[in-house]
TrEMBL record, chain A:
Pfam families: Ring_hydroxyl_B (PF00866). One of its GO terms (molecular function) is dioxygenase activity. It comes from Rhizobium rhizoryzae. This is 3-phenylpropionate/cinnamic acid dioxygenase small subunit. InterPro entries: NTF2-like_dom_sf, Rng_hydr_dOase-bsu. One of its GO terms (biological process) is 3-phenylpropionate catabolic process.
Length: 162, 424
């Protein structure tokens, strides 16, 4: 299959998800919350390969209200595991545009996240699948699935947004 | 481990654990940890599986008894076996897949093959043994297995008392716990696993510690709905902790949710109104709708089975010691086998909200356990206090000793059993 190296769409979508990553790492949560469609889900599955998220156990299966609660928890100062919130730095790479019909695009990439908190550094590697909607004015996240490479093994406590 | 008090004898154990307090070395001494693995985890009944995890012949799952890797299998006759995951030839593990279905376990090193009951079935190129290989004695090492109502326990100890006796008065609470599947078979719906850098007994204490709930889980209470918040106002609800013997205890946080078959007339909580509607629309009669809805939130108590299982609200909490300062915890979500999808999905969402590494509750628990382990490195001569509500213990209806909901009675019970086994 021929691959175009001049896809404006890929650059546009990469720029968008890099912005999302930057907002999370820099705690710009209100801007982050505004990046989603109203019905969007943020999902961290437990089992590799699952696609029927609703019927399976996930680490997170967040609608808008759960995303808001997650932010509230991080900012509240009363959660002992989020006081302080872990510092995070995430890197997104290896992008592939899976589909794009002009209104909805599916993008996949890898994410390497380093967490630092209370003198300890941890890393989480994941495949990330984005479904992104184009409106006249902007791009919006419609679904984000984080497939941790070790999802079905024991993780550490994660009191921030992957 | 410079100040290890081992070899263990009655006097050194007694110096570490008193009826109402314990030394921090309980969390930090590596030699003591090794003793616990042989004196407790190799001697008493250890929970290894729920029957639904190995529902059909050929199903298996990996587990651990103490630090020993085991495989829990169901053979063709539906008999459950717990086998040490160690080839009898030169010790390679014969299985490294969490769970699955198989006819046999074939060792990857030299191909020895074992049946689901552990017996040795195949040895490649066996001429070299000149027919002298005693196959009958070379099956996978097998543990004693007994179950109570689908809870599968195993032990290396041939002399251990029968499981029913070991569980004793805890059986009544297992029966109550199982009512949460509303007449459907109880099934495991999936699990969260996480590790924390602390000793296993810190987690053991926590499942019977209601005292921490309103404090550590304040963020959870702040973001949940007002009904749930009211439900979790556990300090003012007349809850209690009860000693069930053999280290087991129950902590009742919501007395109104002890028996899920009672109170079906009570109004349906607002948060479950949509679920009730969905169930009615599926054609369930009103009694059944009410039973399912009441069961969905889980029971109002934590049952602690010494040493490694908590039957907690709507999930199993399994602790797995890894080393003196590392413990793995599994939160197994439970549901109604063949029950309404809407009810099971409600269960999953409730589980995701609080439990596991990304829940709104577990990470805060994990953080304070981590703090205990760190703090226990200091103040070597100071005691861990377990005396809360010691002075106002009473005797409950079943003749068991009780304390109020925030009592440390459950910890005192567990450490009494710990001490008994460590001194045996
Ligand atoms: S170690 Fe298993 S066959 Fe040799
Ligand atoms: Fe807790």
């Amino acid at each position: 299959m021929a691959v175009s190296t001049k896809s404006d769409a890929l650059l546009e979508l990469m720029t968008f998800v890099w912005l999302e990553a930057d907002r999370l790492d820099h705690a710009q949560y209100d801007d982050w919350l505004a990046m989603w469609t109203p019905q969007a889900r943020y999902i961290v599955p437990v089992e590799p390969g699952v696609t029927d998220y609703e019927a399976h156990l996930n680490y997170a299966y967040d609608d808008h209200s759960m995303r808001q609660k997650r932010v509230e928890r991080m900012l509240s100062g009363v959660s002992v595991s989020a006081s302080p919130v872990a510092r995070t730095i995430r890197s997104l790479s290896r992008f592939r545009l899976l589909s794009d019909d002009g209104t909805t695009a599916e993008l996949r990439c890898m994410q390497h996240l380093t967490e630092f908190r209370r003198g300890r550094e941890r890393t989480y590697s994941a495949d990330v699948e984005f479904r992104i909607k184009r409106t006249a004015a902007e791009l919006l996240l419609d679904q984000k699935v984080i497939r941790l490479i070790n999802a079905d093994h024991a993780l550490g406590a994660i009191s921030y947004i992957l | 481990m410079s100040n290890s008090l081992l070899p263990v004898d009655g006097s050194s154990i007694d110096a570490m654990v008193k009826p109402d307090r314990a030394k921090g070395t309980l969390y930090t001494d590596p030699a003591l940890f090794n003793e616990e693995m042989s004196r407790i985890f190799a001697k008493t009944w250890i929970w290894v599986a729920h029957e639904s995890e190995i529902a059909n012949p050929g199903d298996y799952k990996m587990a651990s008894v103490g630090l020993e890797p085991v495989i829990v299998t169901r053979d063709r006759k539906s008999q459950i076996h717990v086998l040490v995951n160690r080839c009898r030839h030169r010790a390679a593990t014969v299985c490294e897949v969490h769970k699955g279905k198989t006819n046999s376990f074939v060792c990857p090193y030299h191909g020895w093959a074992y049946a689901l009951d552990g017996s040795l079935r195949g040895v490649p190129y066996d001429e070299s043994y000149a027919g002298k290989l005693e196959r009958g004695n070379l099956g996978l090492k097998s543990l004693r297995v007994e179950q109570y109502r689908g809870l599968v326990f195993a032990t290396f100890n041939e002399d251990a008392e029968p499981l029913v006796d070991f569980l004793g008065p805890a059986r009544k609470w297992i029966d109550l716990f199982l009512k949460q599947s509303a007449d459907y078979p109880l099934v495991a719906l999936g699990e969260h696993k996480f590790v924390f850098p602390g000793n296993w007994k810190i987690q053991l204490e926590n499942t019977t510690d209601a005292y921490h709930f309103p404090l550590v889980h304040k963020t959870f209470l702040n973001v949940t709905d007002s009904e749930t918040e009211e439900l979790f106002d556990i300090m003012n609800k007349g809850g209690w902790v009860e000693d069930l013997g053999n280290g087991h205890s129950v902590m009742v946080m919501m007395p109104e949710l002890v028996d899920l078959e009672e109170d079906l007339e009570a109004p349906i909580p607002h948060k479950f109104a949509d679920l009730a509607e969905e169930l009615r629309a599926e054609g369930h009669d009103e009694t059944k709708v009410r039973r399912i809805v009441r069961a969905v939130g889980g029971t109002g108590f934590n049952l602690n089975l010494f040493p490694n299982l908590g039957c907690s609200a709507a999930f199993f909490r399994v602790l797995q010691p890894i080393s003196v300062n590392a413990t793995e915890v599994r939160h197994i979500a439970l549901g109604m086998g063949g029950g309404p999808a809407a009810a099971n999905q409600a269960r999953l969402r409730i589980h995701e909200f609080f439990q596991g590494p990304m829940g709104f509750g577990s990470p805060d628990d994990s953080e304070v356990w981590d703090r205990v382990q760190h703090g226990a490195q200091g103040g070597g001569d100071l005691w861990i206090m377990l005396n809360r509500s010691l002075e106002n213990e009473t005797v409950g209806e079943d003749g068991q000793v009780r304390g109020d909901v925030s009592s440390e009675l459950g910890m005192r019970t567990a450490y009494r059993q710990w001490k008994k086994l460590m001194e045996a």
